[in-house]
Each structure stands twice: as structure tokens, then as C-alpha cells.
From TrEMBL:
<comment type="similarity">
    <text>Belongs to the LDH2/MDH2 oxidoreductase family.</text>
</comment>
<dbReference type="InterPro" id="IPR043143">
    <property type="entry name" value="Mal/L-sulf/L-lact_DH-like_NADP"/>
</dbReference>
<dbReference type="InterPro" id="IPR003767">
    <property type="entry name" value="Malate/L-lactate_DH-like"/>
</dbReference>
<dbReference type="Pfam" id="PF02615">
    <property type="entry name" value="Ldh_2"/>
</dbReference>
<dbReference type="GO" id="GO:0016491">
    <property type="term" value="F:oxidoreductase activity"/>
</dbReference>
<dbReference type="InterPro" id="IPR043144">
    <property type="entry name" value="Mal/L-sulf/L-lact_DH-like_ah"/>
</dbReference>
<protein>
    <submittedName>
        <fullName>Malate/lactate/ureidoglycolate dehydrogenase, LDH2 family</fullName>
    </submittedName>
</protein>
<dbReference type="InterPro" id="IPR036111">
    <property type="entry name" value="Mal/L-sulfo/L-lacto_DH-like_sf"/>
</dbReference>
<keyword id="KW-0560">Oxidoreductase</keyword>
């Protein structure tokens, strides 16, 4: 039987599983929130399916469930730093957000560096949290080597997500959030579980030949989106959110982790920008001008990114989140067994 839960009830179940597995209150609450939000917004590749990976990573000792993030000493500059101390990224982001927002309003722009975190989540929850402060946001992070650079044949880059948000005076912000591979790795894993073929152009096998077999694609390499353009953007993310912030690049993550079966450990870069500050002294209100652009896009019959997600959210908020029988049984099992 399917199971329909309110968002709060689903979040409580996830938090209970994570607490039982040994996550402290701060981390369990932060992770429970983003995983439940993934289900609510119809983002299955970063919803409850990720809990197993979180539990495996904890059991392998590759993430510290007891860690509490700390804000590095603030020197009043545009760069603020949060040490996740080998815990998950989400509570570190939550800790740094108020200072990031205050600093971006004061200086026009500011960046939050999160170091030494385990990261498995979608980036849009963070982008939306920054836009809720009236700021534009750019968020990015590496993952682990799983994507061949265009022209190459072996995993090197991560699926390196890039997300952007723009605050809007009414309603939801403009948000896009995507892997710089053709699809997130989670999508391949879900296709493998469902016994479905991959669309062409997603992956190559271990010999570098195009494949539509998810097993072969996961064992081989994923491909960047948009050919050389995605390959270059993925590389930029390795540089900005790996090398530049003194944290691991995707090949280094894989070398240290030794597997793609666990959640990756690296850093994250969050940039917050004040549209008012950038537009000061120039003609026109940036928010009003942005609305004209969005209107022109939808006026052609195109949809804005995140529109599907916001529609799924509205439905879930009205009717609850419905889990398949297999998903409901899996949650029960995880609640019963904890880390076993
Ligand atoms: P998708 O390709 O599913 O979606 C990418 C973006 O494009 C979304 O904002 C989506 O909005 C939008 N979009 C899709 N179709 C259209 C359309 N026809 N018109 C306009 N906009 C459209 O995402 P990915 O599979 O690439 O990534 C999924 C998630 O995986 C992301 O949230 C990402 O952060 C996460 N991820 C996390 C990683 C990590 O290391 N933590 C690594 C890689 C990915 P909508 O949602 O409304 O469809
Ligand atoms: O779906 O590609 C992905 C991914 C990697 C790490 C977290 N999500």
C-alpha cells in the first residue's frame, strides 16, 4: 500500500532514523529537512533514497555524526568560513547563513566557504535560503570522480552541481539547480534499480564506449552536459569549490573515499550578491527588470526552472507526500534496524 504523510510526519520519521543511526540532533534535524524537502518537491534523486547512503557513510566511519560545525573567526571581510568538522554540509550552511546574508547586504557581495563536509544533497534548499534574504545566490561543490572530461574516457570530474537563485518580489524565486553531468548520478542509480535503460549520451562504459546500460555506465563514466561547455563548467567548479577554497577536488575525493558507494567528502562555495548594491546609480529597479525578463520567457510558452518543483511542493503541501509501498517499507526497515 502507498503511504501518504504530511511533510512534518515524513520529516519526523527521517529524523528518527538518523538519530537512531547516531547523528546528533543538529545534523539529524538539518538532514531530515533537506531529504523530506526532496520528496516534497518531487526530487527523487535526492530524497529518501539518499538515507541508505547516509547510513552506509556513517557506518564506514567516513562522516562524523557527532560533529558540530563552527564558524571560523570573523575578520569582517567578504569571505566567511564554516568548518563542518567532518560532519554533513547542511548544518554548516545553516550556521553560516545569517552572517553571509548580513555581510552581503553590507558589502554588496559575500561568500561562504564550507570546509571538510560530507555532501549528498541537492543545492536548491540552500539557494532558496539565500534568496529568502533578498539576495541572489550561486552555489557549487565538487563530488567524486565519476564524469569523463569531453574527449576523455575515464572518470575524473565530479557530477559537480551548480545552482543559482534570484529573489522575486512575489512568489517563489527564480532557481535552477543541476549537475554538470548530463544527469545527476542518483538518476543513473534510480534507473538501475528500476531496470530501465539510460537515455543515449548519458554515459560510457569502462572501455569508453557509449552505453545505455546503467550498470555499465556507473562502472564506466558519466558524460558532461553540453559537451565541452559542461566539461569546462565542471572543471571551474573543481577550481573554485575545491582548489581555491583549500579543499578536495573530485579525483582526490575518490582517492580518499575509495568508492562511489559512500557520500563524498569535500567543500562547498556559496556566493551571495545584493542586486540593489550592484544596480545602485544605474537606471531601473533590478527586481522589476528581472520580472520583465521572466515574463518574456513564460510569455513564449517556456517554463521557468523549478516551476515543476514548486508545483510538486504545492501539491505535497495540500495533500501530503505519497511514498510507494517499497519506499514506506524501506523507511520502516531503516527505523527498526538503524545502522545494520
Ligand atoms: P535536472 O536536469 O532534473 O534539472 C535541472 C534544472 O533544470 C532544474 O532546476 C529543473 O527545474 C530545470 N528544468 C528541467 N527541465 C526544464 C525545462 N523544460 N525548462 C526549464 N527548466 C527546466 O537536474 P539534475 O539531474 O542535473 O540534478 C538534480 C539534482 O541533483 C540537483 O538538485 C543537484 O543539486 C543535485 N546534485 C547534487 C550533487 C552533490 O554532489 N551534492 C551532485 C549532482 C547533482 P525543475 O526541478 O522544476 O524540473
Ligand atoms: O547525484 O550526482 C549525484 C550526487 C553525487 C553526490 C551527491 N549527489
Amino acid at each position: 500500500m502507498t503511504l501518504t504523510l504530511t511533510l512534518d510526519a515524513l520529516t519526523d520519521r527521517i529524523v528518527a532514523i538518523l538519530r537512531r543511526a547516531g547523528l546528533n540532533e543538529v545534523q539529524a534535524a538539518a538532514l531530515g529537512g533537506v531529504i523530506a524537502a526532496g520528496e516534497r518537491d518531487g526530487c527523487k534523486s535526492h530524497g529518501i533514497y539518499r538515507i541508505e547512503g547516509v547510513l552506509r557513510t556513517l557506518k564506514a566511519g567516513k562522516v562524523d555524526g557527532a560533529a558540530l560545525p563552527v564558524l571560523a573567526e570573523d575578520d569582517g571581510r567578504a569571505i566567511i568560513r564554516v568548518e563542518a568538522r567532518r560532519g554533513f554540509s547542511t548544518p554548516a550552511f545553516d550556521l553560516g547563513l545569517p552572517l553571509l546574508a548580513a555581510r552581503a547586504r553590507e558589502l554588496g557581495l559575500a561568500a561562504m566557504v564550507v570546509n571538510d563536509c560530507t555532501h549528498f544533497s541537492a543545492l536548491w534548499p540552500e539557494v532558496e535560503a539565500v534568496t529568502a534574504e533578498g539576495l541572489a545566490a550561486l552555489v557549487m561543490c565538487p563530488s567524486y570522480a565519476s564524469v569523463a572530461p569531453t574527449g576523455g574516457t575515464r572518470p575524473l570530474l565530479g557530477t559537480n552541481p551548480l545552482a543559482f537563485g534570484w529573489p522575486r518580489p512575489a512568489g517563489h524565486p527564480y532557481v535552477f539547480d543541476f549537475a554538470t553531468s548530463v544527469a545527476a548520478r542518483g538518476e543513473l542509480e534510480l534507473k538501475r534499480r528500476a531496470g530501465e535503460a539510460l537515455p543515449e549520451g548519458w554515459a560510457i562504459d569502462a572501455e569508453g564506449r557509449p552505453t545505455t546500460d546503467p550498470e555499465a555506465g556507473l562502472a564506466g563514466a558519466m558524460l558532461p552536459f553540453g559537451g565541452h561547455k559542461g566539461s569546462a563548467i565542471g572543471t571551474m567548479i573543481e577550481l573554485l569549490a575545491g582548489v581555491m577554497i583549500g579543499d578536495l577536488t573530485s579525483p582526490e575525493v575518490l582517492e580518499q573515499l575509495g568508492t562511489t558507494a559512500l557520500a563524498p567528502f569535500h567543500g562547498e562555495l556559496v556566493i551571495a550578491l545584493s542586486p540593489e548594491a550592484f544596480a545602485r546609480g544605474r537606471p531601473g529597479d533590478p527586481f522589476a527588470r528581472a520580472e520583465l525578463l521572466f515574463g518574456a520567457i513564460t510569455g513564449q510558452g517556456a517554463r521557468l526552472p523549478s516551476q515543476r518543483r514548486f508545483a510538486a511542493r504545492a501539491k505535497a503541501e495540500a495533500e501530503g507526500v505519497t511514498l510507494t509501498p517499497a519506499e514506506a517499507a524501506q523507511l520502516d526497515r531503516m527505523l527498526e534496524l538503524g545502522l545494520d
